[in-house]
Amino acid sequence: MRNMTTENKVLIFDTTLRDGEQAPGASMNKDEKLEIAFVLERLGVDIIEAGFPIASKGDFESVQNVARHIKNSTICGLARSLKKDIDAAADAVKSAKKSRIHVFLATSKIHLEYKFKKGPEEILQIAVDMVKYARDKNDNIEFSPEDASRSEKDFLYRVLEAVIKAGATTVNIPDTVGYATPGEYGQLISDIKNNVPNIGKAVISAHCHDDLGLAVANSLSAIRNGARQVECTINGIGERAGNASMEEIVMALRTRSDFYGCATAINTKEIYKASRLVSKLTGFAVPPNKAIVGANAFRHESGIHQDGVLKESSTYEIMRPEDVGFPVANIVLGKHSGRHAFKVRLKSLGIELKEPEVDKAFERFKELADRKKQVFDEDLVTIIEDELQVVKTTWSLVDLVTTSGTRIKPQVEVTLKSKGKTHKKTSSGDGPVDACYSAIDDITGFKGELLEYSIQSVTRGQDAQGEVTLKVTGNGKSVISRAASTDIIVASAKAYLNAINKVMA
Questions:
Q1: Which band of pLDDT confidence, cut at 50, 70 and 90, is reported for residue 229?
Q2: pLDDT tens-digit profile of 385-408?
Q3: SS3 at position 300
Q4: CB-CB contact of 184 with 212 (8 Å)
Q5: Beta pairing partners, 455
Q6: Sheet containing 477-485: order of strands
């Protein structure tokens, strides 16, 4: 890869915490957002859009919390072209070492006519006034003409020229509804460069949605035509069909640097961990065939492919699994392995823990090794994720005994601990999971609703860990939780308790 210069560096603007969270069911609490922000910082993300501060008290506090703790990335808050929004964004990011205010206003005819009921000149004046207002509060201002890809070009050029003159340092070109094709969107970026007289005073940014499955292709086309910032999310999560996938854009630029001639500052070895964390906290499973981070991304079934990879990996692999931090499923540990070997293996996977965390994780590993013939790297990653969940433990599982079969009604005896006291309950249900949850509800007094339940294998084999993902509502909250075990009933119980603990937090 060529060395980065001002001309060929592409800034990564990650909006997982803002646009990504707008995906239905993907809401995260303040602690979870901070956990993701730390991962984004380790990735080397240039700008983190931490949220939409005016949206709610919780969103404001989350942005504020990220701004206080993140030191290496610029922290950005989103604002409509309203003074109250800009005030909230400015206040939320003011403690950040590096900060930005992102102001947006729609410029397409359909938005002007139906949403704003205003004419072009009025919209132009609002954009200028609000950028000036924001610039008085922060010297790093991004402006987005919402629905730019469906805006009249001449009007778009005028707006961009005016906001740059008013103080915008970045102009973002949103394909808000994922309407553009790569050729059209790339041409739009090129036309902006050629028709906005002062465009050299601002960075051109691309923000693409995936309604037609073209978000990544459009973003890369924008880069080819002069965009030097790209807005994206981990795993491509976002409103409707999602946003451009950060990992795909980054690895496309890295793998095909000969074609794009650009580079990012992303530490690609952190990509897989970031993907796993976002999936865990949102409950959005990564499809096995997902590029870069899917479970099958580096697996070869065909004998011809297997033979080629064994002889020379580049025959069928255009990047190495380790380049994105993807755990290679080798058997490296067993029940006789010691604590030192365990720590060394975690370090090789890029996992660094404090000593108390190592103790807890090692205990889990030994328990798992007693039940599994083979312990894979994916097993270790799952253990660590379970142990480091940001959940205040009100209720914990002590014991679980199940009785079920084709001729008897399932029964489950559950023993839980809370505040040093144990509580036991036996319950029946339509199945062992239903019976288990009935017993837990009786013990905890939880009055909520299970909205979604899914289970998938962590590794291969009959003794693989099952990972359960739940979406639960209660006490006015909607939460996502996960847990894993070789016993799916135990995993189900732990996931449910994690959800209850989140709701009660």
A1: very high
A2: 766 665 567 899 999 999 988 889
A3: coil
A4: no
A5: 468
A6: 449-457, 466-474, 477-485
